[in-house]
TrEMBL record:
Descriptive protein name: Type II secretion system protein M
Species: Zoogloea oleivorans
Similarity comment: Belongs to the GSP M family.
Chain ranges passing through the membrane: 30-49
Membrane topology reported for the UniProt record: Single-pass membrane protein
Upper lineage: Bacteria, Pseudomonadati, Pseudomonadota, Betaproteobacteria, Rhodocyclales
Amino acid sequence: MSTAQTVTGQSPLARLVQSWQAISPRERRLVLMAATVVGIGIVLTTLDWSRNERIRLGRAVPRAEAQLEQVQESATEITRLRAQPAPQRPAATALLDMAQASAKSRGLALSIQSGGEGLHVKGQAGFDDLIAWLAAVQHDQGLRVLRMELQQQGVQASIDAVLALPAAP
């Protein structure tokens, strides 16, 4: 006996055909109408789902493409930066000279000395000028504020700070 046949010896398809022929024509029409309604419901549900997904993807794809472009730009930038040689760390005396020259070029009367923790900065100048100078030495020479006491008196400010030397690359 074949595995497709049931215990009674008939295949499921043969039993279905036999059951279909056993029902009256009126019942056949009702079964066909019910199957048509169910089929139309399935088709409409599938079309509605498909339309909703198309709308969702229409919004999601441009966002994903923009994110992909950003990632590709970042990857290009990372590759470019990795190809560059690591910046050389200037000696502490060179940083001291650069910081003093930078302060002098901005007209700031600051006392800058090299110490164990980094560069010690003391003096008075315009508050905005001090902040701009600190930003410039951080950007240009890699010096960062380790400790700072800043007292503003009108447009003038007195500073007592320690600027840390940049870390080794």
